[in-house]
Amino acid sequence: MYNKNRVYALMGAKLPIVILPREGPEPHDSGCAMGNDKTMKPYAEKFYKGTNWQQCREAYAKSKGYLCEACLKQGIFKPGEIVHHKVHLNPKTILDPKIALSWDNLELLCRECHAQKHGKTKRYKVDSLGRVVIL
Questions:
Q1: Secondary-structure breakdown of the chain: helix, strand, coil percentages, each rounded to the nearest 5
Q2: Can you point out the beta strands (E) in 58-122?
Q3: Is residue 67 one of the residues assigned to a domain?
Q4: Structural domain boundaries enclosing 109
């Protein structure tokens, strides 16, 4: 399984990381079926928590050396955290393994690059005490 603590450790974060509850209004729909558990679209929950996706995501991330592909193209070595679907998943495409599980449709990204793919929507912030707050 994809080890988030490994990625955060690579980023120099001090573990454990405390995630606080969401503050303010719900974020707009960026087209991504998977955010954090609170923003996951109902049709996507079974898929993203399923063994097929978990194994596919881990194998893909490992094949990319756990590095953000977009940053790497710019010569920047930054840990990738999100396996992104280039063709966004919706209730129809999530049932098609040629779209949902195909490595040709996947891209490993850091959070910043993933936010850029979705209109620069920031999904978290760090408060004055250094805690992560989900937006």
A1: 35, 15, 50
A2: 82-85, 106-109
A3: yes
A4: 28-120
Structure tokens at 91: 């209730």
CA 50 to centroid of chain Cα atoms: 16
Pair of tokens at residue 83: 């396996």
CA 133 vs CA 21, 23, 64, 67, 76: distances in Å: 6, 8, 28, 24, 26
User: What is the number of structural domains in the chain?
Assistant: 1
| Residuewise pLDDT in 10s, the chain (135 residues) | 444 444 444 445 444 444 444 444 333 334 466 554 456 788 899 999 999 999 999 999 999 999 999 999 999 999 999 999 999 899 999 999 999 999 999 999 999 998 888 775 556 678 888 888 766
Its pTM surpasses 0.70: no
Task: Examine residue 20 and state whether it is found in any structural domain, yes or no.
Answer: no
Please give the distance of CA 43 from its chain centroid, rounded to a whole number.
Answer: 17
